[in-house]
Specification:
The protein is 49% helix and 18% strand. It has 79 residues and is α/β, with parallel strands linked by helices.
Amino acid sequence: MSERSSTALHNINLLIVDDNQYARGLAVANLKQIGFHNIDEANTGAEALLRLQSGHYDALLIDWYMPEISGAGMLSVIR
């Protein structure tokens, strides 16, 4: 990966939303390995929506099947 690409990844803010801690951990580890550094985690859809209100994220990785607020439910609120 070029230095320019690596620097660009450093500036991207990501939010990982998954009720499974192991899945979140894998996602974070893999994303860090390819150069992302600004990664936040939320373990529920409700927590993620609160984080979205108080912070700026360039991209979200959302589990589709979660209790209470699913990935589909989150997307309908975000839109």
